Structures are given as C-alpha cells and as structure tokens.
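Entry 12.
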Amino acid sequence: MKLWHHSLSENDIRQCLRITTGATLGFILCKIFNWNYGVFFTVTPILLLGMIPKMSAHAARQCIAAAVICGLEVGILGGFFGSHPVPMLIITFFLFLYKFACMSKGSLFLFGAQSVLSLSIMLNFASYPETDLNELIFNNIGASILSVSIAFLMTALFPDAEARAKHPAQTKQPNRMRHESLMGASVAVLSFLLFQIFDLSDSMSAQATTLLLLFPMHWNGALGYARKRAMGTLLGVVIGLASQLFLYNWSGELVLVIPLLWIGLMLLSYAHVKEGGGSGVGFAALTTLGILFGQYLAPDNDLVFSALYRISSILFAIVATLLACYLVHRLLNSFAATRFGQ
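Predicted 3D structure (tokens):
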C-alpha cells in the first residue's frame, strides 16, 4: 500500500490517458459498427495499455499471434472434438499448459496471458449451439488487431515524457517453471470444465476472474491478488451502477454513455497507476467496468442486474479458485521436480 502514496509522474498521467482514451475508442467503434462481443473491443485495449507501460512491436506481435493461434485452436477443437468431451478436455489441458509455460518464461508473458483468456472464453462461448463460431473467432482477431492499432495511436498521442527504467529479467529454476505451468493449466482446465457442467454462459466476469487469479503464477500471489480482485470488482461495479443511475432511461444514447465511461475509466486508471501498475485493485476495477459496458450495456438492457450478478458470481469464483490453487500447489510441492522455489 506504500505505492498508493507516491505522486504521479508525467509518465503516469500519460499512461492514464492512454488507457482511458484507448478503451473508450474501442467501445465507441464497437457500438457504432454494431459489432458483437463488445467485451473484446473494450477490455483488450485495457489489457494492452494497462499491463504494458509502453507499447512496442514485440507486444503487438504477441497480442495478434495470441488471437490468431487461439482462433485456430478453437476452430479445430470445436470442429473435430466438440462432441467428444474427454479428448477435448485433455487437449485443452495441454493447450493451457504451453500458454502458462510462455507466461512463466517471462519474455512471452503477454502472449500467454492473452491466449489463456481468449482460449477459455472462446471455448466456453463456442460450446453453445447458438454461437456462430466463425463470427466469434474473427471478432476476437479483429479486436486484437484494432486494439494494437489503438495502442500505437495512444502511444503517439500521449508519448512518455521521459525514458522508463527497464525491469531486470527474473531467472527461474526449471522446477519453479514446471510448478507454475502445471498449476495454471490444472486450475484453468478445471474452471473450463465447471463452467461447462453448470452451463454458466453468462458469467464471463467470473470466468475471467478464475484466470486472472492465476497471473501471479504461484499460490501466495494468487492469495494476495484475490483480495485485490474482490475489491476491484466491487469498485468497478459501483462506478458502473452509478453511471447507470445517472443515465436512467438514456442508457441507449451513445453520446451520453461515452463521457461517463471515459470518466469512470480515468478514475480507475488513476487508481491502477497509483498502485504502481500490475494486477491490483485498479486493474481489476478497469476490467470489470470494461466488461459491464462492453458486453452488457445496450439500448434494451441496463447494468443493474448484470452488475449485481457480477459481484456474487465473482466472489464465488474467487473462493473456488483459491481452493483449487491451494490443493494443486500442495500436490505439486510433494514432488521435487515440481516444487515451487526461486
């Protein structure tokens, strides 16, 4: 919490503007052109501009590659193994395994993180017969390409005022990398299985939460982030509900929605940057608000029920995910080859 008291630098202010304006621009384009799966177009810019202080060609390649590869994986899995749950579950585990291995390596963390979220959400959507699989895949790829373009545009409009210090690369032992990869893949595939069994097609926030809790890549990190995720979800929902109450019956008027979204994102970006970046309360609130506006706000729908449902489902997802993480962590620590260490 000491990071909360540090004053904002010029770079921090510009990052807030990049996150806020980029996510709002993605939301505007999605609504103007009436694209489905608005969550991809609103949340992906938040992930890019929030997780990466400065956009780069390396980050752009990772983001687009994640979307294309996940599209191929979902298309092949849905086409050949959609009616065979056991082989599909086994293949899904190994797909998650190599994605978490990329995250554990460090240099490909963005590729792994984006792939994990996209694969889980897309597989869940693709399992329902009313879903147009091609539309789902191409919307995700299009959102990634658009988000990369928006991220570069925001970097050009609000460039850093001074060079940022490079973070030293962290060296991990093979047993730790195996531990992180196996724990992430096991909990992710268990989450996917439960969402399929209980037919939870409208709980995207809870599904994303089960995966975001795995981003610290170890049990202690997941435990610490769980509290931040719960607080961030509550904060994002409160801002979403306040916006809905202010709009009342005018939630279908885009010209009124846009400034409220921008203000809400700016407040939460401020919180995110004040925490020093990373997956904290501010980042959790940003993704929650992006999901609420991008996926659930429409002329024939408001945020009230969706927001309240998000709170209950996410709190349950946090508890269930922590329990699964703890059990898998203890199991993997029973073997020297997968024991968590430095």
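Annotation: Residues 2-160+172-338 form one domain. The first helix runs from residue 10 to 32.
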